[in-house]
Design brief:
Helices cover 30% and strands 26% of the residues. The chain is globular. The chain has 301 residues and is α+β, with helices and mostly antiparallel strands. Strands 1, 2, 3, 4, 5 and 6 form a six-stranded mixed beta sheet that branches. It has a four-stranded antiparallel beta sheet with strand order 8-9-7-10, with helices on both faces.
Length: 301
């Protein structure tokens, strides 16, 4: 371990994870489902504010903060404690404030991304000196989605989500995220699956742009959609609203209920978001861009 540097304060982005396509390809004997997913990470997400303190502290603010547990069950604290155990027990106290901008239990990996952001930030603040592989090993103990959120680049995830293949050259995408204000239980959705041995993802086009990606997405699925629709029929209304707002392609992300619309330009996406907020004032709506392969992962919301 490196010698701790002068205490630092940091504000870091925990980007939303969007599953552009998600195929359920099987089920292992231990009950975990095998998946193949093309995922991207957006410039909109939660934010973590970390600074040295006299004693460990944790607080939650933001529009989706109320009701979120601030005890040891929160992935932020589990990530802090896991990194402290991996580095040294005498690391200094830290104050963490989670600015919760993403809906809870909404299919965009909010909690997993929060945990990944804490691992990366504290690795720097505490000068632990852990490499990406060492951080990934800690991330795997926190949840299947945490390693991919640690990568926060366009990628294809396989296995139970832990086998990651970055997609080099993948462009930034103009997206609108919409959540109708309902939470969805991921285990409940998986339990409701009628078919678990679906085909793998097709090969990506050699050159990915808006048009080639849209055509490719038309040949793929989110195999969790039918089960999620049965639990929360309003998800179907969200997809219709995105289509009406001019989305080039609309789909549910993860196990829902957040859906995304793919737009050709950022300005078109912003105009669509304005229209969606006007028509559905009770919904969460965010126009954003995904991080391209070349992005450094620290984009603003």
């Amino acid at each position: 371990m490196m010698t701790p540097a002068e205490p630092l304060a940091e504000a870091v982005l925990a980007p939303a994870k969007v599953n552009l396509a998600l195929h359920v390809t099987g089920r292992r004997p231990d009950g975990y489902h095998t998946l193949e997913s093309l995922a991207v990470f957006t410039r909109f997400g939660d934010r973590l504010h970390l600074e040295p303190a006299a004693a460990d502290a944790f607080s939650i603010t933001g529009p989706f903060g109320p009701g979120l547990p601030d005890d040891g069950s929160n992935l932020v604290l589990r990530a802090r404690d896991a990194l402290r155990q991996a580095c040294a027990s005498n690391l200094p106290p830290i104050s963490i404030r989670l600015e919760k901008n993403l809906p809870v239990a909404s299919g965009v990996g909010g909690g997993s991304s929060d945990a990944a952001a804490v691992l990366k930030a504290l690795n720097q603040i505490w000068a632990c000196g852990l490499g990406q592989q060492e951080l990934a090993e800690i991330a795997r103990t926190l949840g299947a989605d945490v390693p991919m959120c640690l990568t926060a680049r366009p990628l294809v995830a396989t296995g139970i989500g832990e086998e990651l293949e970055p997609v080099s050259g993948f462009p930034a995408l103009a997206l609108v995220l919409v959540n109708p204000g309902v939470a969805v239980s991921t285990p409940d959705i998986f339990q409701r699956l009628e078919q678990r041995d679906n085909a793998s993802l097709p090969a990506l086009p050699s050159k990915v742009d808006f048009h080639s990606l849209r055509n490719w997405l038309e040949t793929t699925h989110n195999h969790l959609e039918p089960a999620a629709f049965a639990v929360q029929p309003v998800i179907g209304q969200v997809l219709k609203a995105l289509d009406k707002a001019g989305s080039g392609f609309s789909r549910m992300s993860g196990s829902g209920a957040t859906c995304f619309g793919l737009f050709e330009t950022g300005n078109v996406a912003k105009r669509a978001a304005v229209a969606l907020r006007a028509r559905h004032p009770g919904w969460f709506v965010a126009a954003t861009r995904s991080m391209a392969w070349e992005n450094d992962g620290n984009g603003d919301s």
